[in-house]
Design brief:
homodimer; about 150 residues; mainly alpha; Arc Repressor Mutant, subunit A; 6 helices; DNA-binding; WH_DNA-bd_sf (chains A, B); MarR family transcriptional regulator (chains A, B); MarR/SlyA-like (chains A, B)
DNA sequence: TGACTCATGTCAGTATTCTGACATACCGTG
DNA sequence: CACGGTATGTCAGAATACTGACATGAGTCA
């Protein structure tokens, strides 16, 4: 079972568990978003846009942890479907500020409810203190990794 | 900055932070594995195989959080390159037990060193207590999500 | 035994994301 | 002002992962 030595202990590896938790969260989100005709990436983009209107393609990409090329094709699709709008010309530089349309806001609302239910389920067994701890610890990990 | 109401607070959302941490970890792993001609998925597969020899395609898929179809093409590649072996015929049922070859073990060793350095960096700012806490909390999240 | 359910390995096609590349616009320093 | 460095939007092609589908083998139950 626990043959020590060279490998990395999967059972006690924070990295492995991080991946597992992230994967479980993504799957759970997909499950609740699918009936709404929404995907995780699209939702992430819309939610980000709702909180910070006018974000550019590159900024959205960084906020959703994909490349700006991927975000670009996503935005083109969202634009075609009328969920977001971008001005035909950049007001300044090359940056195109993106905004939600009423349709996009509508779609996001339903998705947010679904996602919130998932997040609540995820946090069900945790006290407020533990949640705060988790926040602090995860932030520390991100900081260390990016350094 | 903090326009409350409909959305999910990104700054304080454990879900978002989980994704961010997982993404940062993956990027950091890719960075150290690339010089070795290794990818994260391949490493995960080999590491799993080192700890639990004889795992089947489907079991490896579950352990690395991909579909069994994806794992299958990965295994075929690893087999072609001589890093793993599978018997031509299933000893029992359809399950093909997979094993590392000496070449595979060799490749894994270097990768493990690299990955361990990343994991150590990630945990740099955390006490042992905090690491144990994180483990406990993440496990709770996974359990709640899968329920 | 036979029927049913479930899990597995695998093929094929699709979808998504990435890497590479290019032109362009800002911004600092000399 | 000129210029190198950096960031952006976008196109194209490659890599990767996924969904759908099928045949097969194991286990269960009547």
């Amino acid at each position: 079972m626990s043959q020590d030595g060279a490998g990395i202990h999967l059972e006690t590896s924070l990295g492995y568990l991080l991946k597992e938790a992230s994967s479980a969260l993504r799957t759970a989100m997909e499950d609740v978003l699918r009936p709404l005709g929404m995907t995780v990436t699209r939702y992430s983009c819309l939610e980000l846009l709702a909180q910070r209107p006018g974000l550019s393609n590159s900024e959205l990409a960084r906020g959703t942890f994909v490349t700006r090329q991927s975000m670009n094709v996503l935005l083109q699709a969202l634009e075609r479907e009328g969920l977001v709008t971008r001005p035909p010309e950049a007001p300044v530089g090359k940056v195109l500020p993106t905004r939600l349309t009423p349709t996009g806001r509508k779609a996001l609302e339903k998705a947010t409810v679904a996602v919130r239910s998932v997040e609540l389920r995820m946090l069900a067994g945790l006290t407020d203190d533990e949640q705060a701890q988790a926040l602090r610890i995860l932030r520390s990990m991100v900081r260390s990794l990016q350094a």
